[in-house]
Write a structure and sequence with these properties.
With 763 residues, the protein is α+β, with helices and mostly antiparallel strands. The protein has 14 helices and 44 strands. The strands form ten sheets. Strands 37-38-40-39-41-42-43-44 form an eight-stranded mixed β-sheet, with helices on both faces. Strand 23 and strand 24 form a beta hairpin.
């Protein structure tokens, strides 16, 4: 079902209505028309929505792009003068560019999203699909400075994309800071030579195939007297194989393979080694403090050359250390050692900033049960003081001012009368005093600072509040200029309404669980509506929308006669450590006890919320969750669409799964496996999988299929030739719509292959 066809549905509606329909008030062809035409009907109706500002280097000016009726416009702001104006004459630029490019552009449909001021603002440069352009802002003459079109040039060599484990890198020698020497690898060993010379001196002699020095790891000391490098024992590389059944360029299928490391696989062993370049002395650093690495970061020298550091993430993610190695003795010490009982969230909550060449360290930790900042004594490893503290979480650090000893950071949960997931901006002193809130409005904030930190642009919104954007002064937070206040009146005129934010208590009877409720635009409170939950319970984040959006995916599903919801249950991030730890070695939990209580609380308040008919859908980790709902909570959930699921965490990528499920592999993996528990299936299931999924091994889905067949279970399978990690795009969306209409509404979806529909599709 192509987008072109979906957009023709409104015109086809009279013919569609001639087809036989079940007598039902929901799931009708009129509902399908409203659902499938929704993106086009709602697109562009909110005006005055600003994108992120682009500060112009060396000035107090910035520009941003905003939505206007029919398209977009660019605005230039002078922060010092508190003035804003069009970034250029849009009409003249459109006319000139149209003539030069032999295309048709208008003032609000210019063919670029970003540009650069050049020649002190007298011209702009930008890229379009036709190449690189330069337009003079006095004469408005435009010339193409470079031709070229964008195209998909993916070949066999880059089929694997980001999955390829980088053991290579460039092969250029690493030149010393003083420019006199260069280090390189020959026959698996480390050599040095004078720059421009062929005569080399060998520093290591034990390197061999399978135990070799790695060029990209070489780190020269600032005084050019020493080198630190990793000697690596590379692990065997697992490969995942793919059959591309229907390639575009040939009749016969293609075979692809990708390197893909899974939980439990062997990993490279990295051994740091220290060399004195002049004497040739070699020190193999004792590995007592880093015996079993999942990963060790690159080697970094202190600026004064006294030591080098690296970070050690132990297999299982329950020990994380910052290690410093003395440049004279090679002795290693742990400046910081995080050893939580569950997991250290290195992928989402690690932050380190070395102050005064590491004599102090700003460090992020959940050691008190909440994600906060600490000031560490770099000489002793002692905590000098906790910088931030309270039952709220630091969400990230934007800037550290060493001179003023201040930190600019983001946090959530500090405002007791607001959604704890809302992000706000703050400033605080290193010693924990002088906390200043830089944002206060009740909403989710995005703050962008000027390069010199004199100004910031604060843009905020909520799911029920269109964006507001202000220019503010960083020293005291004073509002200097209101930039935009988005207008959604045209959107509301269509009958669209924002989702309702709903809060209920979780499984402990105390913790607030937050979610949203999306109603159909023709909502009738006298009717009963089945409920569909969109789920993604990955522990690496939180996922319920917090900023303004039309939520067309949710809204389109709702238009067929459903209530659509999304919830962040326990086990997801951005709350307390205890809230997060529910996921530890227990991904099957997925917050379901909290989700079900939330659903019941909504049903208790609203009689139209029918929890006797509950569907659920998700992709990737959400696909695992959606199927898990029917396996572990089939007494509550009735139907699920599970796309691209990592159904057994032993089958998926190592970094994500060992982070939450732990190492070594144990019975917890089988307990959370949708394959092992497939026999428990209750309710109606649609599985979706792309044959070329390079994110999640597609065999994970096929193993579920095999287990379901062996258990004599009935289910549907949508297999997508040539597709990567996906829920199926527009075709998959329509299949999901039909699946829930059939199983939750009890209505037969349109017969897309018959009568006038088949003729229209064929044409």
């Amino acid at each position: 079902m192509t987008r072109t066809y979906l957009r023709r549905l409104p015109a086809l509606l009279p013919a569609l209505l001639l087809l036989p329909l079940a007598a039902h008030a929901q799931g009708t062809l009129a509902d399908y028309e409203r659902a499938l035409s929704l993106p086009d009907r709602l697109d562009g109706l909110v005006v005055g929505v600003p994108e992120a500002p682009h500060w112009i280097e060396g000035t107090d000016r910035f520009w941003y792009r905003k939505s206007v009726e029919g398209g977009d416009a660019f605005v230039l702001v002078d922060a010092a003068a508190r003035e804003k104006r069009p970034a250029f004459d849009h009409e003249r630029l459109a006319a000139s560019l149209s003539a030069a490019a032999e295309e048709s552009y208008t003032a609000v449909t210019l063919p670029f999203r970003t540009f650069d001021y050049v020649d002190d603002g007298r011209a702009i440069e930008f890229r379009t699909r036709g190449g690189q352009w330069r337009c003079d802002l006095e004469s408005y003459a435009c010339e193409r400075t470079r031709s070229g079109t964008r195209f998909d040039a993916r070949g066999e060599d880059d089929f694997c994309g980001w999955l390829t484990r980088d053991r290579g890198g460039d092969d250029r020698p690493r030149v010393s800071p003083d420019g006199k020497l260069e280090a390189f690898i020959r026959d698996h060993n480390l050599f040095v030579r004078a720059v421009g010379s062929e005569e080399a001196r060998q520093l290591s002699f034990e390197g061999a195939p399978g135990d070799e020095y790695v060029l990209r790891s070489i780190a020269w000391s600032p005084d050019s007297r020493k080198i630190a490098a990793y000697r690596v024992d590379p692990a065997p590389q697992r490969m995942v194989y793919y059959i591309e059944s229907s390639p575009d360029d040939q009749l016969q299928p293609k075979l692809h393979s990708c390197p893909y490391t899974k939980p439990g696989d062997e990993l490279d062993v990295q051994q740091p080694v220290l060399f004195d370049v002049e004497t040739g002395e070699q020190i193999i650093v004792d590995n007592t403090l880093f015996p079993n690495a999942y990963n060790m970061t690159r080697l970094e020298w202190r600026k004064d050359g006294r030591a080098f550091t690296f970070e050690y993430n132990q297999r299982g993610h329950q020990v994380y250390r910052v290690i410093e190695v003395d440049a004279e003795t090679g002795a290693a010490r742990a400046i910081i050692s995080e050893e939580p009982e569950t997991f250290f969230d290195y992928s989402g909550k690690k932050y380190r900033y070395d102050v005064d060449d590491g004599r102090e360290i700003i460090w992020m930790s959940e050691r008190d049960g909440w994600n906060h900042l600490y000031l560490i004594d770099g000489e002793t490893g002692r905590v000098k003081n906790q910088i931030t503290k309270g039952e709220w979480v630091v969400r990230g650090v934007d800037y550290v001012d060493e001179e003023k000893r201040q930190i600019w950071f983001r946090a959530g949960g500090m405002n007791p009368d607001q959604d704890p997931y809302f992000v706000h901006a703050y400033r605080i002193n290193f010693d924990g005093t002088g906390l200043v809130a830089l944002t206060e409005a009740n909403g989710n904030h995005r703050v962008t600072y000027s390069p010199d930190m004199k100004y910031y642009v604060d843009t905020w919104s909520r799911v029920d509040l269109p964006p507001i954007s202000q220019l503010r002064r960083a020293s005291d937070g004073e509002v200097l200029l209101e930039l935009e206040r988005a207008d959604a009146s045209a959107l509301y005129a269509t009958g669209w309404r924002p989702p309702e934010v709903f809060v209920a208590k979780g499984r402990d009877g105390k913790t607030d669980i937050w979610g949203i409720i999306v109603r159909p635009m023709n909502f009738d409170p006298s009717k009963k509506y089945p409920v569909i939950e969109s789920i993604y319970a990955g522990p690496h984040g939180s996922f319920v929308p917090k900023s303004f959006s039309t939520l067309t995916s949710f809204q389109a599903q709702a238009e067929l006669g459903f209530i659509v919801v999304q919830i962040d249950g326990m086990g997801t991030s951005n709350r307390s450590k205890a809230f997060h730890d529910v996921a530890w070695k227990n991904l099957k939990d997925a917050g379901f006890p909290d989700r079900i209580l939330w659903h019941k609380a909504v049903a208790e308040k609203y009689p139209w919320y029918d929890i006797t008919r509950v569907g659920i859908y998700g992709t990737s980790a959400g696909g695992q969750n959606a199927l898990g709902a029917l396996l572990f909570h089939g007494d509550f959930y009735d139907a699920a669409v599970s796309a691209a699921g990592c159904h057994d965490n032993r089958m998926d990528k190592i970094w994500w799964n060992e982070q939450w499920m732990g190492w070594p592999l144990g019975p917890q993996y089988a307990a959370s496996s949708n394959v092992e528990n497939a026999y428990r299936l209750q309710g109606d299931l649609l599985l979706v999988v792309g044959e070329l999924d390079r994110n999640v091994d597609p065999s994970s889905t096929f193993q579920v299929v095999d287990a379901l067949i062996k258990a004599n279970k009935t289910f549907d399978l949508l297999f997508l030739p040539g597709r990567d990690h996906t829920s199926g795009g527009e075709y998959g969306q329509l299949k999901r719509f039909d699946f829930f209409v059939h199983h939750l509404l009890g209505v037969e979806p349109p017969a897309w292959n018959s009568g006038v529909l088949a003729a229209e599709i064929a044409s």
